[in-house]
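Moderator note: this is an archived Q&A kept for reference. The question asked for a predicted structure of one protein chain; the sequence and the answer are reproduced below.
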Amino acid sequence: MIKSWRFLVLLGCAAVLGCGSSSPPPLRLGVPSQSLPAPGLCRVLLEGYLPRRCDGIANIAPLDSRVAYRFDDGSRNVAVCYMDSGARGVVTGIDIFEIDRGRLVSVQRRYADPHLVGDCDDAVLGLAPEVDYGS
């Protein structure tokens, strides 16, 4: 009886709290909601950049920065585009986050996928062409 009780406690701890788990913590947005752009706009997620139209934002975003694109479909989600560290205007990854909780909703592209050339909104909406660096 005592052994089964201990087993249930350990099983519950592992299932609910992840006790002893070596998995990384969930990816979070890490940006206050008031710093995000209004629906339909983009913003480079660095100090000193204001929300703006998405057209041309890839050309002003610093290398290795993040650009947020706020959906204008009424959802409370934001896309974060990861800009390339070696070529301006190239998107290397896209994650979708829930604004209110900052939780990762989905991974749209990862670094192993072909990179996209263009602005964050075009990349998210599938309008940006892919580029192959011959990796």
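Archived answer notes: The radius of gyration is 19 Å.
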